[in-house]
## 1
Amino acid sequence: MINIFWFRRDLRLNDNAGLYHALKGNSAVLPIFIFDTNILEQLPGKADRRVEFIHTALTGLQQQLKELGSTLVVYHDTPLNAFKQLVKQYRIEAVFTNHDYEPYARDRDESIAQFLKERDIAFHTYKDQVIFEKNEIIKDDGKPYTIFTPYSKKWKARLNEFYLKSYPANKYFNNFHQLAAKRIPSLQEIGFEKTGGEFPTDSPDNAIIKQYDKQRDIPGIQGTSHLGVHLRFGTISIRQLAQKAMKLNETFLSELIWRDFFQMILWHFPHVGKGKAFKAEYDFIKWRNNEAEFTRWREGNTGYPIVDAGMRELNTTGFMHNRVRMITASFLAKHLLIDWRWGEAYFAEKLLDFDLASNNGNWQWAAGCGCDAAPYFRIFNPYTQTKKFDPALTYIKKWVREFEEFTYPAPIVEHETARARCLETYKKGLEKAR
Ligand code: FAD
């Protein structure tokens, strides 16, 4: 008999809740990963940095497991087919894994749980990628929070050592199933190719975290952690990072709470992850959806240097500074009146740290239709934002070198005109909803 540990968005051996519980059991643990063809087939290109990131992380895991006399078994298939093969090959006592709150993942896990149940195999799942999940932080009346500040207050009040304690899986590493190392399929074999880019380090930079509240809004400097992708794929532990945040910087901790918040929202309101506005009345807005303008936004040619700098940073590196994500998102939805879902999908395609809950939550925030969103009549002025956050134009000069030249396009729309048009369109949409 063996136990299976199924890696998903928790690609590390240390402080991994589900893996710890699996290793503590009586049967040896065979770790697996599935390159899910349902997901991979939806990706737009062959050069996908997220797939490459996962592949690199799996190679690292394989090395560690090899040293422990074990191996990772990697499938390239649908999860159901992978489990069909596993039950043919092994006598399985139980499958262990960590929670995933996305709508697709919930359906997938339900069907796998059912498949295993029919074969008398237990399916054990654990919280791992957030500090608090599901109903752990709810209002006194038992309903989920939809406003961040009171959620965050309760989050902090409930926090104690228990929730930050690490899971010392390493104590039980001798319980990995001993097996000669299996080959991980290459990127090419699963239909992808190398992109050549580098990944940010997984070691948090204490100096950046210490200064986070003072520097996080300045896109021209390295003032944020760049840990997003590691949190997304679990190559670092949220508990260890939260401990650090508590010691070093409260504002940084608050960002980690936003992350929990949006996962909680997606769990309770899965419609947001299925193309619907959190506030239904915003689905009555009549978007202009001008394709040519969307192309200019995507390519960073709107004639608004701060917007163009952000889009070019995204297109070149797979990263965009948070302040500029807010500016570019607001610009698309409000200045250009292009459906925020188009922008959300574009970010989803490009961001290395793409995460459905955070991407969707922040896009809805920027468009005004989300929970705790910026009110729709508050419209970012890209020029004022530049003055405030990039006064020496360091960021703009880095990404839009030609911004003062003749060749640089004139603004795609005049700010005051766009503002008035946005207010009018939103107002009409919301009135229609009544
Ligand atoms: P830091 O500023 O160092 O923050 C540390 C961590 O806190 C981040 O890595 C992230 O996990 C979390 N965090 C920070 N800000 C937020 C936030 N506003 N909401 C939720 N979590 C946050 N974040 C994603 O992880 N994935 C996305 O797909 C994503 N899409 C976004 C889309 C838009 C339109 C906007 C405005 C924001 C989006 N964010 C997203 C949030 C934020 O921009 C990124 O988390 C952050 O810029 C990543 O850089 P960093 O790792 O240096 O973050």
Note: Residues 128 and 268 are 18 Å apart (CA to CA).
## 2
Amino acid sequence: MDKKELMEIAKKASVNAYAPFSNFKLGAALETESGKVFTGVNVENSSYGLTNCAERTAIFKAVSEGERKFKRLVIYVDSDKLFPPCGACRQVISEFSNDLPIIIFSNKDVVETNINELLPMSFQLDT
Ligand code: THU
């Protein structure tokens, strides 16, 4: 899928973010090798620590639908600042790929990176 199209999907998804506490609305779009796209948003909770990030929402949706091979992840935040994925999300991404291309964008900036750059020497069990 075209990069711009996937970015538009992530941005559109962000309107569904449930973020009454932080007001940070994030949207993710995860393209699978089979050509599907799974979106995700951050889902906050009154018990703050239970919040689920947009990236993990998208990954969990995909994995629960039988998809484990990913082509690209796009993350959008409705802000002028860029917000790269948190450590927990990096670890979850690295479970499924050690070279996944990742695009992070805001209303002002865009950065292209990959999971190996964001989380080198990640913890993996030899299975
Ligand atoms: N958040 C994400 O959705 N992804 C990240 O990688 C970092 C943080 C969300 C969680 C919370 O709803 C808000 O951003 C502020 O932490």
Note: The first strand starts at residue 26 and ends at 32.
## 3
Amino acid sequence: MTSNKTTYIEQPTLFIVPTPIGNLGDITQRALDILNSVDIIAAEDTRHTGKLLSHFNIQTRTFALHDHNEQQKAQVLVDKLLAGESIALVSDAGTPLISDPGYHLVTQCRQAGVKVVPLPGACAVITALSASGLPSDRFSFEGFLLAKSKGRKDKFMEIAKAERTCIFYESPHRITESLADMLEVLGPEREVVLARELTKTYETIQGLPLGELVSWIEEDENRKRGEMVLLIHGYREAVNDTLPDEATRTLAILVKQLPLKKAAAATAEIYNLKKNALYKWGLENLE
Ligand code: SAM
């Protein structure tokens, strides 16, 4: 079957279309144009997506594609694409494939030579990171925390020394236990940000040393409610612990005669230490 909606779309394409994570105003004009123009919208939950579509007065027909049927139904959709129909993939909220269905469909489309076009848009990981105040130059998205304590603790141990910001999705009914496990493995000093209800009325973004965050969340039951993202500051070596007193004393003397960079390099050579660690210590303690 060839498409009768070909005015906007030049060739059969699978479009990956993000939808809002709370605030309907976050849908893009391009997303609306694509949802209007395609022949089919493959949706994680057709009833949920139906509400979004009727809000924007979009009449395109939907097709259910969720975690439980994706492996079988992906081929049906690929066949439709190969027959000339265009499809938009959406999930309940945010960007499809990010802790949401779509992986099998995209893989099979690419294998079959079907064009796949991603649209940028709402995504809780990126939205949370952008306002967290944590380093964003290197980060990893680790998906949902596991439901069992042992699995969670293993995961925290795995990332304990990672220097990047690590980001998790968490469900409200496990947040207390998850933070307790995190505290046990990472300790009370690690800075952690809880970003909940992003883009919604009760949006809260709270960053504190983990020990304080655990107390903060216990002060008000509402803080445990809603959708949430947890962001963990990367591991930072405690510089003072690793630099011998003799070396920092030498650096303090040298820095009276030399710029810090040179003083750190000289001290590093004398004591066979890392000049960056000395430089950082100097910045924090001598400047
Ligand atoms: N595909 C989505 C995305 O792009 O972010 C994520 C879908 S995943 C099934 C749902 C999880 O994302 C929630 O349990 C929560 O951890 C996070 N999430 C989604 N919307 C959120 C929001 N408005 N505020 C905070 N976290 C949110």
Note: The domain at 131-232 is CATH 3.30.950.10 (Methyltransferase, Cobalt-precorrin-4 Transmethylase; Domain 2).
